[in-house]
Structure formats: C-alpha cells, structure tokens
C-alpha cells in the first residue's frame, strides 16, 4: 500500500537541476492542474459529456516522467490521462476541444476524454481498457528496436492494472527482448473504490517486476524532481539497449475516481478525510513552488502561474468556439470498411 510517510519530509532536493528546468516542471504541472479543474467545471455544466477522470494530485509523476524523454519518444496512457499529452508538450486547445467532442479536437471530437492521442508529441493514444497501455508501449518499443532508432516508449498505468494479464505479458516480453520501455505505475493506492491492499497480493509492485527480470524503483510520486531523476535513469538505460525499467510512483488523487456530476467529489465513503489531508500536505505543486522559491523571484513564479491560467482559459475559449463534427464525417479516418464491400464475380 502506498504511504506518504515512506518518503523524507521537507523540501525535495534539486540535486543540481537547472532553474529553467525547475520552472518548466512547475509550468507544466500547473497547466495540468488548471486544465483538470476547468474540465471538472465544464463537466458539471454539461459542456463535457460522459465520465471524466481527473489527475489532480498526480501532476508530479506525469511531468517528471514526460520531461525525461524526447519529443519523438512514445507514450501511452489510460482513462486518467488528460495530463500526459500536456506533460509531453502537446498544444492544449485541441485537447480541451476533444474533451468537449468538438471538430477541432485532437481526434476530431470522436475520441473524447479517454481517447486522446497526439502523434505530434509521440502520444500514441489512451484507452479506458485497464492495462492496455502496457502492450501498446511494448509494441512501440519493439518498433523502435526493429527500426534501429534510439526511441524510448513509456507506459503509464495505475496500480489496478498490475493485476491484469497484459501487464505481466508486456513486462515479460520487454524483459526477454530488452525493449526500450519504461513502465510507470501511477500508484495512487486505489482502483475505483478498492484499496490496492485488498486487490493486490504481495507487498510491492516491484516484486512483480523483479520476478519478470525487470528492475524496479520506488519513487515519491509527489516530488517532480525525484521522478525526473528516476525516469532519466530508466530512459538512459532503455536507450543504451539495456532493456526496460518499472517505476513505482507513489501518488494520490484528490478527487473521486471519476466526475459523475456530484457536487462534492473530494472525500468519499471509501477513504477518510485524514488520509486525504495527509496527502494534501504533500501536494506536488506546493512542494515544487517552495523549491522554485529558492532559485526564482516571487514575481517570476507568479508570472508562470498567470501564464498557466491563461493557457487553459484560451484553450477553453477555442474549444467552445469550435463546431461539433458533422454526421457525414463519422466514417472518415477508419482503417477498415464498416460494411463488407460487395464483390462481383
Ligand atoms: C479491463 C478493465 N477492467 C475493468 C475496468 C473498469 N475500471 C475502470 S477504471 C478502473 C480502476 C483502475 O484503477 P487504476 O489502474 O489503479 O487507475 P486509477 O483509476 O487509480 O488511476 C476499473 C477497474 C476497465 N475499464 N477495464
Ligand atoms: Mg489506482
């Protein structure tokens, strides 16, 4: 079970990271936080259809990993992955438009919240099928290896996914073939309302990786700098042809599993306020702001905060102004014909 007491208290140590990179970490985490807050509001107002799963509280593990890879490296995510393309540097307006089901969306409004894909930043797509990011990322890693490039592939998945067969099959294949894959378990301690201690046998996820010959590291997922260091080492190993690594990033989500239109979706029946409060004390943005205060003026930090808000506000205006897709476009972009083509003999 993840536990914040496992990690040292006090400020994260920057260990020689340049101020520009520290500032970029903060900017990307803030854009994700503001994006998710805005998405929650738009969902409540009925402007975003269907369930959405917010990653508020998990920004450090997302950004720390994404900033450790290159633009041409691959990434796949899951149902809680609005933040991942943002972390990897995607344009924000088409992401917000996609959540609203608009034609200017990154998937032309046909995918929505759980199916964001932005090939421009190596985001191969996300899926609501728990565990499916693992085989997608392993396939991308195999592709890189066969093509002889040094690209790396990241699989983001939750602690619930480690009980899915695809997780074990994917790690095993990546281990045997030394594929350039980094497996990032976004270990927020719960799968919907089930604590991982009630669903996962064994103490730590690292044991599962070790059994398959994949080295694993446990990292404080609220500390962007720590995640960046762990991810950078794993990426270096993958690029050098030494094979995959698993990162167990221990984190927390402050909201409920999904936004279903309820007014209070923060504290729910399956966890108590004290637990949420304990994790809130280690909020990744608060921690990182304190780190940044050591290398930047307060005015400069406030400039980053205003710019992040403006980025999301502009994206919302853009998304609102975009039209809905047309029914005639429904069958565009398909890889196969929907109906068998009539044959003549
Ligand atoms: C194969 C499959 N089984 C079950 C579900 C239903 N389901 C959706 S999200 C979820 C929990 C996932 O938990 P976790 O992997 O820890 O991710 P988190 O939501 O905590 O980020 C489940 C069981 C599903 N979508 N796909
Ligand atoms: Mg989880």
Please provide a written account of the structure.
The structure is a single chain. The protein has 345 residues and is α/β, with parallel strands linked by helices. The chain has one domain: Thiamin diphosphate (ThDP)-binding fold, Pyr/PP domains (Rossmann fold, 3-Layer(aba) Sandwich), CATH 3.40.50. It is built from 12 helices and 8 strands. The strands form 2 sheets. A 6-stranded parallel beta sheet has the order 2-1-3-4-8-7, sandwiched between helices. α1 (19-44) packs parallel to α12. The longest helix has 26 residues, at 19-44. The protein binds thiamine diphosphate and magnesium ion (MG). Thiamine diphosphate (TPP) binds at residues 79-80, 128-130, 158-161, 186, 188, 190-192, 257.
Topology, please?
Blueprint lengths: L18 H26 L14 H8 L7 E4 L5 H5 L5 H7 L23 E4 L6 H15 L5 E6 L6 H12 L4 E7 L2 E2 L2 E2 H4 L5 H7 L4 E5 L3 H16 L5 E6 L22 H8 L3 H9 L5 H24 L24
Parallel strand pairs: 1-2, 1-3, 3-4, 4-8, 7-8
Antiparallel strand pairs: 5-6
The structure holds thiamine diphosphate (TPP) and magnesium ion.
Average pLDDT reading: 93
In helices, the fraction of residues equals 40-55%
Secondary-structure element string: HHEHHEHEHEEEHHEHEHHH
Give the distance, in angstroms, between the N- and C-terminal Cα atoms. 64 Å
Helix tally equals: 12
CATH class membership: Alpha Beta
What class do helices, strands and sheet pairing give?
alpha/beta
Q: What about the largest sheet? A: 6 strands, parallel
Give the ligands present.
thiamine diphosphate, magnesium ion
Radius of gyration: 20 Å
Instruction: Record the strand order, biggest sheet.
Output: 2-1-3-4-8-7
CATH topology: Rossmann fold
Our count of domains comes out at 1
Approximate strand percentage? 5-15%
CATH-level-2 architecture: 3-Layer(aba) Sandwich
Low-confidence stretches: none
Number of strands: 8
CATH superfamily: Thiamin diphosphate (ThDP)-binding fold, Pyr/PP domains
Shape: globular
